[in-house]
Amino acid sequence: MKTVSSKAESLLLKPPSEACTESTKLEPKNTAEPVTLSVNMASSDEDSSPGLDDFSGLSPYERKRLKNIRENAKFFASLQLSESAARLRGMIKKRQQPESKRKRPKKKENEIGCRRSMRLLKVDPLGVPLPVAPTQPELEEEENPLLPPGPLEMIPENQDDSNGLLLKASLKTWAEMSKTSNERTEEGLSSIKSYKAKLSGMVISEATVCKVTKGAITSVALHPSEERTLVAAGAKSGQIGLWDLTQQREDEPYVFYPHSQPVSCLYFSPSNPAHLLSLSYDGTLRCGDFSTAIFEEVYRNEGSSPSSFDFLAEDASTLLVGHWDGHLSLVDRRTPGTSYEKLFNSSMGKIRTVHVHPVSRQYFVTAGLRDVHIYDARHLNSRRSQPLISVTEHTKSIASAYFSPVTGNRVVTTCADCKLRVFDSSSVSSQIPLLTTIRHNTITGRWLTRFQAVWDPKQEDCFIVGSMAQPRRVEVFHETGKSVYSFLGECLVSVCSLSVMHPTRYVLAGGNSSGRLHVFMHQESF
């Protein structure tokens, strides 16, 4: 049965003419031989069709299957797929033509070419080649040459005063007013309403805006005088600018070059305001003395770049200097020489700022990459000093950390994660809890000095910080996170990254990346 079925399939797949010829060959020899079927033949009569009568010995299923195969073969033959495929191949071959190269246009004999500069061809108007000028090697001058060690005279870079009479008069004035600024009156905190009202009286004008330094301002200090307004600004170029707003309303400020690299820290001495101490990345700490007109060299360490310093003693005799490599130097100004007394190794990879506690001066706070540590100066050692308290709430690099100016019960930090944080440091023997987190844009970019939030010495529960918001402003916040006041003005058109408040008067000075000082003064100060 299987042999007959396979032959039938091959027969049905052939054209009808060939199928009829083959069907005669498959006729059974003995027609009288009975064939037994297990299925009713009545159903097979319905499936009978021409060409299948010769296979009466097949089952109805086989007959039905062969019928379907034959009908499918006829259908595909009617489609003429082989002829259509042959026609398509011929059409594709006709469309494919050999690529023809682009013919270049022939140049005309009398065509005029493009005009060329005779100067660039190095020929004169007559067409004669010019002689080649010998190249001279350019001498590369150092932008900030290293300064010699030792004391430097206070010689302003921007004043053409051959006799120095103007400078001597100014230095004498500043030295005399410093004698009357030693005592500081202790007053209680004002109410926020009263404090805000006094801040609203501070204004800025064209007369209180001046370009003081050549490069970006990296540090600012205000003289504590009650009579005059003297602002000092340290620059990225190593300059220090002194601007007396009372005396030099029309004159330019004095600009000095005591350092060869950025001035990162600048303070007037708390015991003698006639001394202006400056710290630079060039590894030196100098003291500008108004009475002697000399920048004395207090400390020198060219092997480790310093970053910040603060006065460890109230009389400013000893200093604590932080370095970028994580070391701390103890410097005694009473000791001859410019070396350190002791060198300590902190547990921080880098130190950005150092600030001593205003009451318990053995404690100081340091800001590193992502940690804030509080140390006890009595327990420092040369191997690896362990901090009393470690604050790890910051997620990115920290720009600064400062104790509150009167009691030291608060610490404010500025972090690159766009947050200002206030911690409770009333008990430095245990962990300092986080009190307030303020959302504030601190992303200054590459060309602006990083923000540093600093406390107002007159109002211990409030601090000031620069802002990236428009219009440009300097903002004042309360320790609870509430905004107290924003300094605005038509003359404030750039970002003041660093700001400082006068310890007793309502005067604010801010510096920007172009070397300009912006001073907000209370109307009574004019």
UniProtKB/TrEMBL annotation:
Q: Where is this region: Disordered?
A: 1-59, 92-112
Basic residues bias (residue ranges)? 92-107
Coiled-coil blocks: none
Q: Does the keyword Lipid metabolism apply?
A: no
Which Pfam families does its entry note? WD40
Q: Which InterPro entries match?
A: WD40/YVTN_repeat-like_dom_sf, WD40_repeat_dom_sf, WD40_rpt, WD_repeat_DNA-damage-binding
Keyword DNA-binding assigned to the entry: answer is: no
Recorded superkingdom: Eukaryota
Keywords for this entry? Repeat, WD repeat
What is the protein's known function? Specifically binds 5-hydroxymethylcytosine (5hmC), suggesting that it acts as a specific reader of 5hmC.
State the PANTHER family in the record: WD REPEAT-CONTAINING PROTEIN 76
Spell out the family assignment given in the record's similarity comment.
Answer: Belongs to the WD repeat DDB2/WDR76 family.
User: Self-association or partners: how does it assemble?
Assistant: Interacts with CUL4A and/or CUL4B.
Protein name (record): WD repeat-containing protein 76
Naturally occurring in which organism (per UniProt): Microtus ochrogaster
